[in-house]
Amino acid sequence: MKCIVGLGNPGSKYHETRHNVGFMVIDELLKRHGWQLSKGKFKGHFTIETYEGEKVILLEPQTFMNLSGESLRPLMEFYDLTPEQVTVIYDDLDLPLGKIRLRQTGGHGGHNGVRSCIDQLGTKQFNRLRFGIGRPESPITVTDYVLGKFNDDEKTDLEPAINHAADAMEAWVTKPFQKVMNDYNK
Question: According to the UniProt record, what class of enzyme is this (predicted)?
């Protein structure tokens, strides 16, 4: 079994903001397959589905970004998942808009959702899909930028990038993460 976690903030106020690209990738996977997040447990919304004969959990924590690990850890404990069975999808200011990077480990890079996952899991050894949102130009603060919605120009680049990230996650369900990294980090 594998678990794909999209980080974001719950509620309509944050819907389709830059900080919620993790949710957007999960939503794309749900849309593609006609799945729904139906279980409200572990401080999150999740579903367990079968893709290409493999079981996969899709999770959107409902804790707000800074406490994302409080949703992921109990779900992993309940389903007896190891960190290697998890990929966390989150926004990254250090990548250009729409660029994705897959990694097997690393620090939090200042991302509070990832920091929460590291703190709650007690390890940095879990897969990540970093989704580039670019950096704001002043005078916009980082907080206002990540909690802001994509403008029309950005939306043009956003849709193919979300599809690319969803493709990578579908590939990971049936292939080793290292292979997916090699194929999608080009």
Answer: hydrolase
Name the catalytic one among 15, 19, 111, 164: 19
Task: Identify the band that residue 186 occupies on the pLDDT scale cut at 50, 70 and 90.
Answer: confident
Q: Are 125 and 85 in contact (CB under 8 A)?
A: no
Consult the annotation and say whether 14 binds a ligand. Answer: yes
Helix crossing, 152-174 with 21-33: angle to 10°? 60
Tell me the whole-structure pTM to 2 decimals.
0.96
Q: What is the pLDDT of residues 52-106, one digit of tens each?
A: 999 999 999 999 999 999 999 999 999 999 999 999 999 999 999 999 999 999 9
15 labelled catalytic: no
CB atoms within 10 A of CB 149: 12
Structural domain containing residue 163: 2-184
- At residue 39 the predicted structure's pLDDT band, cuts being 50, 70 and 90, is confident
Total number of domains constituting the chain: 1
Q: Which positions ≥6 away from 169 have C-beta within 8 Å?
A: 4, 25, 29, 87, 89, 129
What's the CATH code of the domain at 43?
3.40.50.1470
